[in-house]
C-alpha cells in the first residue's frame, strides 16, 4: 500500500481542538503517531488560515472535511475558498437534519445536492455522504442508503462509508465497500467491540470484531484513496492512545 493514505479523523480528538493552541498541539501528536493526513471535523472556531499553517507545520495534509449541510446550501462559495486554502478536494457531510430521513426527504436532498455538487466539481472538488446506522432503515424493498446511491448519480455523490455504523445498522461493511467500488474516495475505519457488560462499544481498529482483512481487501479493490481512522468515543482511555493503537494495528495489516 502506498504511503500517505492513512489519516486521522480529528473528530476523534475534538475535545483537544477547541482553540488554536490545542489544535496545534493535537496535529503535532497525530504526526508523531505516524499519520500523514487528517480529516477536519469538530474543531473550534479557528481561523482557516491558522488551521492551514498548523497542519502544514506539523507535516500533515488535509485530505477531507465534514461540513454541515446548511453550509453547503447557504455558503458554498466560502466553503470552496476554505478548501482551496487547505488544498483539500474531498468535502463530505457528516449527517443530515432529521427531516431528510422522513418521507420525501431523500428526493429533497438529491434535488438540493445537484447544484451544490456541480459547483464543487467546477472547483475541482467532490462531495461524499457519511453514514450512520439510521440510513440502513428499510424504505420499501431496499435501505435508505441503497436508495440514495441509486438515485444520486456518481458525478454528484460519492461515498464515505463508516465501517462501524454499517455494522451497527445490520449491514456487512466489506459488502458495502465492494458495492461502492469506484465512487468511494474516503473510508472511515472504526471498530466495534462487545464489552464485558454486553454493551457494544467503539474500539481501536483491530481491537474489536470487524472483519478487517475482508474490509481492506474490498477497499483496495474498489479504489479507496484515503483511509481515515475515527473513534467517536474513547471512554476511559486516552483518545491519542486509541489512535496510536489503531495505527499500529493497521500497519501490521500492511496499511500505512
Topology:
Layout: E1 6-9, H1 20-33, E2 37-40, H2 48-57, E3 61-65, H3 69-74, H4 76-85, E4 90-93, H5 105-122, E5 126-130, E6 138-139, E7 142-143, H6 144-151, E8 158-162, H7 163-168, H8 173-179, E9 186-189, E10 191-194, E11 200-203, H9 212-222, E12 226-229, H10 239-252
Parallel strand pairs: 1-2, 1-12, 2-3, 4-5, 5-8, 8-9, 9-12
Antiparallel strand pairs: 6-7, 10-11
Walkthrough of the structure:
The chain has 256 residues and is of the alpha/beta class. The protein has a single domain (6-252), classed as Alpha-Beta Barrel (TIM Barrel). 41% of the residues lie in helices and 18% in strands. It contains 10 helices and 12 strands. The chain has helices at 20-33, 48-57, 69-74, 76-85, 105-122, 144-151, 163-168, 173-179, 212-222, 239-252; strands spanning 6-9, 37-40, 61-65, 90-93, 126-130, 138-139, 142-143, 158-162, 186-189, 191-194, 200-203, 226-229. The strands form 3 sheets. The protein has an 8-stranded parallel sheet. A two-stranded antiparallel sheet has the order 6-7. A two-stranded antiparallel sheet has the order 10-11. Strand 6 (138-139) and strand 7 form a beta hairpin. The chain is globular. It starts with 5 loop residues before the first strand and ends with a helix.
Amino acid at each position: 500500500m502506498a504511503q500517505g493514505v492513512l489519516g486521522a479523523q480529528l473528530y476523534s480528538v475534538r475535545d483537544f481542538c477547541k482553540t488554536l493552541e490545542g489544535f496545534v498541539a493535537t496535529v503535532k501528536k497525530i504526526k508523531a503517531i505516524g499519520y500523514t493526513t487528517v480529516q477536519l471535523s469538530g474543531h473550534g472556531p479557528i481561523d482557516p488560515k491558522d488551521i492551514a499553517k498548523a497542519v502544514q507545520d506539523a507535516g500533515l495534509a488535509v485530505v477531507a472535511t465534514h461540513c454541515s449541510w446548511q453550509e453547503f446550501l447557504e455558503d458554498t462559495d466560502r466553503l470552496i475558498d476554505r478548501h482551496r486554502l487547505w488544498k483539500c478536494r474531498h468535502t463530505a457531510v457528516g449527517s443530515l437534519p432529521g427531516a431528510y430521513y422522513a418521507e420525501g426527504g431523500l428526493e429533497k436532498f438529491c434535488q438540493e445536492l445537484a447544484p451544490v455538487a456541480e459547483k464543487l466539481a467546477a472547483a475541482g472538488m467532490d462531495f461524499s455522504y457519511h453514514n450512520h446506522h439510521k440510513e440502513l432503515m428499510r424504505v420499501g424493498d431496499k435501505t435508505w442508503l441503497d436508495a440514495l446511491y441509486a438515485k444520486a448519480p456518481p458525478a454528484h455523490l460519492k461515498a464515505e462509508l463508516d465501517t462501524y455504523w454499517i455494522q451497527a445498522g445490520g449491514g456487512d461493511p466489506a459488502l458495502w465497500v465492494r458495492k461502492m467500488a469506484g465512487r468511494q474516495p474516503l473510508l472511515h475505519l472504526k471498530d466495534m467491540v462487545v464489552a464485558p457488560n454486553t454493551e457494544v462499544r467503539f474500539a481501536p481498529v483491530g481491537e474489536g470484531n470487524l472483519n478487517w482483512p475482508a474490509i481492506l481487501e474490498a477497499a483496495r479493490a474498489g479504489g479507496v484513496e484515503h483511509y481515515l481512522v475515527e473513534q467517536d468515543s474513547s471512554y476511559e482511555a486516552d483518545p491519542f492512545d486509541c489512535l496510536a493503537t489503531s495505527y499500529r494495528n493497521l500497519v501490521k495489516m500492511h496499511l500505512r
